[in-house]
Amino acid sequence: MGIIDIVGNNAAQIDAAEYEQKVREKYPSALLQPDERIVFAFKSLGGSGRDHYMLTTKRLLIKDKMGITGKQIGYKTIPYTSVRAFSLETCGSLDTDSEMKVYARGIGTVSVDFNKNVDVLAIHRFLSSVVIQGKAAGEDYVADAASGYGNGSGDASTGIFDLLGSNYAQIDKHELESRLKPSGVLLPQEKVELAFKLEGTHIMTSLRILKIDVQGVTGKKIEYLTILWPSIRGFSVETAGNILDRDSELTLYFNLPSKECSSEGSPRNHRTRMKIDFRDGQADIFAVQRFISDKLLGPDTMAPSEHGGAMAGYNDTGSGSILAWLGDDSRMVDPREAEAQFRFILQSCESVELAFKGRRDMILFTTKRIIFVDKQGLFGIGKKTEFISMPYRTITTFSLRSAGSFVDKDSELCLWLDFDDVFYPRRSNEDDPPPPPIPRRSYLEIDFQKDKVDIFVVHRYLSERLMRVSGHKMKPGPCGVMIECNDAPPGTKPPDPFFPFLASYLP
After folding, report:
1. Eight-state DSSP code of residue 27
2. Cα dihedral sign, 19-25-29-34
3. Binning pLDDT at 50, 70 and 90, where does residue 42 land?
4. What is the 3 state secondary structure string of 35-59?
5. DSSP code string of 377-428
């Protein structure tokens, strides 16, 4: 215990077995389950405080004494099944405390500061073993036996333009895996599939996304951030452009809970997205896309939609309208031609069922997701193209609006997605009122050309896809809800009411 630990409220580690015995004696069969064990125990204020933090075999359990006397006590339980991400941060040169953060559904972020004597890597190994289980590890995938998803050269040399642009390079995954496993950063059964390095390292493994962030001038302070695959709700890859824009990009969209921020020029949730820039020629962006698709969508072949393929063989005659071209309204095109054109971005078990084309961009409705193809540059003839993938499970709500009259000649599809990507823009002038927030990828709107798209085909298709279970069968009706029709002739006495005392109020 030191003055720094007391001022900073840094928790100190205490004997877990001894503290478990005290808990069971004081709360027999009340606080801990019979088969539950305390693996790590900590006490606030460097060991002299009154609050306790316990990592058991089943949950994070926090004992919080409140008030001046401490008579009121709160017991907060966070099951490991509720955890979407967690991070451990080692102590630095001047910053002598380490930190644990747990991102859990509902409650948000739980943070605990430790003193310098706590082995945070041991906690990282334990949390990895209890949190990353079952579906938390993502979908199964089958990599090519020879090359998998590609490998880097191991050359992490960085030029001035790469440092200024924060451009990562792909490194040798086998060498990295051999260095991380002995230290316990990776689980014994965990396999590194892709790894990228600049100052820190982004690692995509068979079980998670692991970001190792080296901080400070000395690099002594290191954060190990684990994000579970199911927390990723969508992603996009962007190819490299011409001479001035030489890097490709990957963006991952999360639904991690975090404290809400309303500052101008900031996202509402700073854990919404993770962007990684890659050096030109130093990463296979389509191998990255293929691996993420396999981990999020799985290797299964989805049953075809009853309403998919309705436009197979459709002869596209163009927009035929200058207003539709100026408004970038999309029209239906042959999904088989679109599938042949974009086969390189699809899984081998994935097929295109509906396809739409605007002035230069395209939208693909596949058996597993919606893909937005955004061709950039003047008139879409540039080299840079972004491919945005949103799995159907990410879509929480959709609506279709028919075309109006006179000026409003296009119909619209609106999609609400399961992550908070809202951004608060800055005011152009201090005297102006704050501008409205920008939803970014949280809400997507697609304009359709009125006479080129049957919106009810789109409605039937999305209704079927979003109400399926694992893409193979429809969800059952709501359990316990009964809808009855009373066909009894007029004047017939109704059956006895469920609550007899209400009989006197019935006619």
Report:
1. S
2. positive
3. very high
4. CCCEEEEEECHHHCCCCEEEEECCE
5. SGGG-SS-EEEEEEEGGGEEEEEEE---STT--EEEEEEEESS---EEPPPS
Q: Tokens 């953060």, residue?
A: 101
Q: Are strands 83-89 and 98-104 parallel, antiparallel or unpaired?
A: antiparallel
List all residues 6 or more positions away from 257 whose beta carbon is below 8 Å from its beta carbon: 84, 103, 104, 105, 106, 107, 108, 109, 271
* 153, burial (CB in 10 Å: exposed 0-12, middle 13-18, buried 19+): exposed
Find, among 90, 106, 309, the residue nearest to 212 by Cα: 90
In a 13 Å sphere around the CA of 169, the CA atoms on its Cβ side amount to 17
pLDDT tens digits, residue range 275-324?
998 877 778 899 999 999 999 998 888 888 877 766 676 777 777 777 77
Structure tokens at 163: 């440092």
pTM for the model:
0.84
Compute, in degrees rounded to 10, the torsion defined by CA atoms 150, 153, 159, 163.
Answer: 50
Distance CA 367, CA 335 (A): 12
